[in-house]
Amino acid sequence: MSKIAICPGSFDPITVGHLDIVTRGAKVFDKVIIAVLNNRSKQPLFSVEERVHLIKETTSHLSNVGVDSFDGLLIEYARQKKASAIIKGLRAVSDFEYELQMASINRKLDEEIETFFMMTNHHYSYLSSSIVKELAKYDADVSDLVPQNVQRALQEKHGRI
Ligand code: ADP
To answer: Which of the residues 42, 61, 108, 122 is marked catalytic?
Structure first.
């Protein structure tokens, strides 16, 4: 049976930190589905469709990586996709408490779906989508932090090209 993992998140927008987690995850699992959360309570910079499109462009070289969006409960979505695992990245201790809570709740909802944590590549431990958005707002250089297509999309959003 092929092992499918879901890599959930807002990805608003995808960064090289996300890409690193997905690339490493794709070496361990048969298939990784990047699942963009359609979170109605957050005001995103990019629409879900834009985020999915940017991720598809960025991961087109990874043959066992798919991109999708979902709303509602992650565990329901994982069941629907017949996934056996959820992959999350951990940056700092500050991520830990929230992620422990989420993993525990998800295990309570479905014991068959395991959450796997991957330590950030130390080069990206400070990197988040929020930081990227803040920098891009002030036209700072984000070329080391996001893939090229995302850099372009950020410039377009801010009317710079
Ligand atoms: P954020 O908005 O905080 O950047 P997301 O909600 O899009 O993050 O995150 C999706 C997943 O990617 C989460 O598991 C998060 O911990 C992980 N992640 C985000 N940035 C990094 C990074 N720089 N290194 C490792 N994991 C990361």
So the answer is: 42
**pLDDT, tens digit (0-9, with 9 covering 90-100), for 8-19:** 999 999 999 999
Residue 75 has pLDDT above 90, yes or no: yes
4-125 sits in which CATH class?
A: alpha beta
Paired residues of 70 in beta bridges: 37
Cβ atoms < 10 Å from Cβ of 12: 23
Q: What does the alpha-carbon distance between residue 37 and residue 32 come to, in Å, rounded to a whole number? A: 15
**Is 129 considered catalytic here?**
yes
Instruction: Provide the whole-model pTM.
Output: 0.95
Mutation probe of ligand 1 site: the residue of 48, 70, 91 with most atoms within 8 A of C-beta: 91
Nearby residues of 42 by Cβ (< 8 Å), 6 or more positions away: 10, 12
Domain parsing of the chain, residue ranges: 4-125
